[in-house]
């Protein structure tokens, strides 16, 4: 199973490279441009994938070392990690082909897998121990997907004709509220996972930047909602970490 984790970790940047060169069809930017939504971040935000892929590969290589071969935590999360990586890689060619229904199934399945892994690592205190690098990469991946899945849902709804291109505000605010609720819930569940929150904050701020300069009807309220979501998540993270430190100090 750990070999599968490595192979899936390698597949993600390879598939991303091929996808951006049009091997599977139009690249992500071209497909996104066909379905302009209010729930889209500024282009620079997607550079986070380079960091996520690099840290995921670090995890995949570390878990193969002799020191970690009998580690029960890494063995427990390996199947879900491999699945999450493989599904992330699969999403890219599906999106290039415009297979939005399949994309939704794949991205939410990937999110479920990596959220489960991030929670298990957080529960084990990996952020402060020997598995810090694994916790960091997998938490970032889960945090970004927690927002990206809803962005994909908004774009799919537009592609399916469920919403009108010029009347997206209500559905966009509802989806953004749902994404925010998910982020706050799991951040609280992980007692303030700073890597998880940081990935989502990166995306939320980039959404605010993009929508602040957009001409789509409803862009200004969406930009303000994205900024509010970012403020709420940042404030919650600060409070949760402060609370954790106080509890630790009291225990000692």
UniProtKB/TrEMBL annotation:
Which keywords annotate this record? Membrane, Transmembrane, Transmembrane helix
Q: What's the superkingdom here?
A: Bacteria
Q: Where are the transmembrane segments?
A: 40-61, 73-92, 98-119, 140-163, 169-186, 193-210, 222-242
The reply on keyword Hydrolase is no
Asked if the record carries the keyword DNA damage, the reply is no
Q: What is the name of the protein in this document?
A: TspO/MBR related protein
Organism field: Pseudoxanthomonas taiwanensis J19
């Amino acid at each position: 199973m750990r070999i599968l984790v490595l192979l899936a970790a390698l597949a993600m940047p390879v598939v991303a490279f091929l996808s951006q060169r049009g091997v599977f069809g139009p690249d992500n930017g071209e497909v996104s441009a066909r379905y302009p939504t209010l729930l889209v971040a500024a282009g620079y935000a997607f550079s986070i994938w380079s960091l996520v892929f690099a840290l995921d590969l670090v995890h995949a290589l570390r878990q193969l070392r002799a020191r970690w071969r009998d580690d029960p935590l890494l063995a427990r999360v390996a199947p879900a990690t491999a699945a999450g990586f493989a599904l992330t890689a699969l999403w890219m060619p599906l999106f290039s082909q415009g297979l939005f229904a399949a994309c939704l199934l794949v991205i939410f399945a990937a999110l479920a897998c990596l959220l489960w892994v991030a929670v298990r690592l957080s529960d084990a205190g990996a952020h402060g121990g020997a598995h810090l690098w694994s916790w960091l990469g997998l938490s970032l991946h889960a945090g970004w997907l927690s927002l990206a899945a809803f962005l994909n849902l908004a774009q799919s709804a537009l592609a399916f004709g469920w919403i009108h291109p010029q009347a997206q505000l209500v559905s966009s605010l509802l989806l953004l509220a749902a994404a925010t609720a998910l982020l706050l819930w799991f951040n609280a569940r992980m007692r303030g996972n700073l890597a998880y929150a940081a990935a989502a904050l990166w995306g939320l701020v980039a959404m605010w930047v993009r929508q602040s300069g957009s001409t789509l009807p409803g862009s200004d309220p969406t930009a303000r909602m994205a900024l509010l979501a970012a403020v709420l998540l940042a404030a919650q993270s600060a409070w949760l970490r402060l609370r954790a430190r106080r509890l630790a100090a009291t225990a000692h």
